[in-house]
Amino acid sequence: MPTTPVAADAGDLPSRLPFEILRDPRAMRARAEDLRRDGLRIAVVPTMGSLHDGHLSLLRAARARADVVILTLFVNPTQFGPSEDLARYPRDEDGDLAKARRCGADIAFVPEVPTMYAAGAQTFIEVRELARPLCGEKRPGHFAGVATVVTKLFNLTQPHVAFFGEKDFQQLAVIRRMVRDLDQGVEIVGMPIVREPDGLAMSSRNAYLSPDERTQALALSHGLAAAEAAFTAGERDAAALLAAATASIAAAPAARIDYLELRDADELTPVDRVTRPAVLAMAVFVGRTRLIDNRVLRP
Length: 299
Ligand code: PAF
Description:
Elements: E1 20-22, H1 25-37, E2 42-47, H2 53-65, E3 68-73, H3 93-102, E4 107-109, H4 113-116, H5 134-138, H6 142-157, E5 161-165, H7 169-181, E6 187-191, H8 211-216, H9 218-232, H10 238-250, E7 255-264, E8 278-286, E9 289-297
Parallel strand pairs: 1-4, 2-3, 2-5, 3-4, 5-6
Antiparallel strand pairs: 7-8, 8-9
The structure holds pantoate.
Pantoate is lined by residues 46-48, 76, 79, 146, 149-150, 168, 171.
């Protein structure tokens, strides 16, 4: 499919190779093997598309760290539950390809579902403890879907280094542990959350919000800020920090907490008092849209 031509702008990063779109997993794998044979360092940025500035920050970081940058665009069905938003997940392939070129991607890998999951596919990767709480508890099977597709994308793109956003804090922890436990030999780089000027964490799902919900979605970042203010003032008790966040979120009538927890930043185990880095992690429904956000509190 032809890509939309995009004018260069001041922030553009040059691709090093002619931009390519690959759809066939076997072609992707063969291309990656050639690149490796040529001694090139490969970075991959796995995404589900509908790219926003958070994704673009991953692409730019990848551009700075590798010879070849591969962006993957694949809305992975195995990480969605039966009542979740797979069918309506925002898709904008032409726009994504234009942004990918502008931010220095060399290859866009855009597979179709049937080529990624052959009929009868029945192998899944389970990361146990780290994948159990938080989004794992609320979205059963989600992290098995993520771990499996990320492994498949690593197999097909053969990266030396891969970039993920810290907004999906638990996902990043799960992927790091999987890579370590399975000796996958890929360096995992986590990149800071990119926020709108008013503080809302960028997310493809923000597109679902009505104007009023968009305003009320600030409940998440305000909740984090309230807990952080208490923490900075010396509060270390988890219940008190969570209460500060809860009170702030409650000010938005359209916001309903799915979970709000303080957990050890490495093991995601519950904490009563913050004595080492802890993550305040939340999922909040704003209307029908489920948003996540987090902040690490470091004593
Ligand atoms: O973070 C995402 O967009 C997805 O979970 C990922 C890592 C691309 C796997 O489908």
